[in-house]
UniProtKB/TrEMBL annotation:
The modification 4-aspartylphosphate is found at D72. GO terms for biological process: phosphorelay signal transduction system. Pfam families: Response_reg (PF00072). InterPro entries: Bact_response_regulator, CheY-like_superfamily, Sig_transdc_resp-reg_receiver. It comes from Roseovarius lutimaris. This is Response regulator receiver domain-containing protein. The lineage of its organism: Bacteria, Pseudomonadati, Pseudomonadota, Alphaproteobacteria, Rhodobacterales. The keyword Magnesium does not apply. Residues 23-136 form the Response regulatory domain. The keyword Phosphoprotein applies. Keywords: Phosphoprotein.
Amino acid sequence: MSDLDGLAPQRAPTNSRPLLGMTVLAVEDSRYASEALRLMCLRSGARIRRADCLRSARRHLQVYRPSVAIIDLGLPDGSGAELIEDLDRATPRVGVIIATSGDAGAEATALRAGADGFLLKPVESLSTFQQQILRHLPADRRPNGPYAITDEVISPDPLAYRDDLEHVLNLLDGGHDAPVLSYISQFLTGVAQSAFDGALAEAATKLARDNGAEAVAPMVGLIEKRLETRLAISGRALT
């Protein structure tokens, strides 16, 4: 069953809502990053559905085919590159496949897997988001004539960041074995970078660099401090 007939939108895109009528599948494990994508889709006229892992994404794709798939490369049950490869080879193909990651070096891997484009986290610019998708659409699926290029910056709800931090603590409750710590390091590094939380991003990076449980306690201390203060994110100055 197809959610849309190929790339044909149910309603034609407009200059102010260039993705009107399209459906975006966001395969993203971070609630904070997902909230940013949701707001961008809302501003652009697109509907969004979210999958937080490869397994969930494959369930979605058994039911419908989105216009656009935005796939995080670091997922809890594998690499998003695997899903990109599958979607690129599928018939019919999802119209636009975009990879996303906080690691700029991952772009080459994504493009080799078959992605049409790449979004480097944090994704803040509405214009960058829209143009990354629109440049890969057929001409007859874009707005007629020039469309507005906005300088709007998207700021997700800080409560979504709180959800991500609580998720990390829940994962640590399950154990401190190497696979868990490796996933937490890449997940939290990306999430903290997206929230411009430099101190926590550094702690998460240190977890991977030291490759040991001794780096867990300082990281947990920073997380608990943020949760205790109800995460009053003021902009870009968390310590």
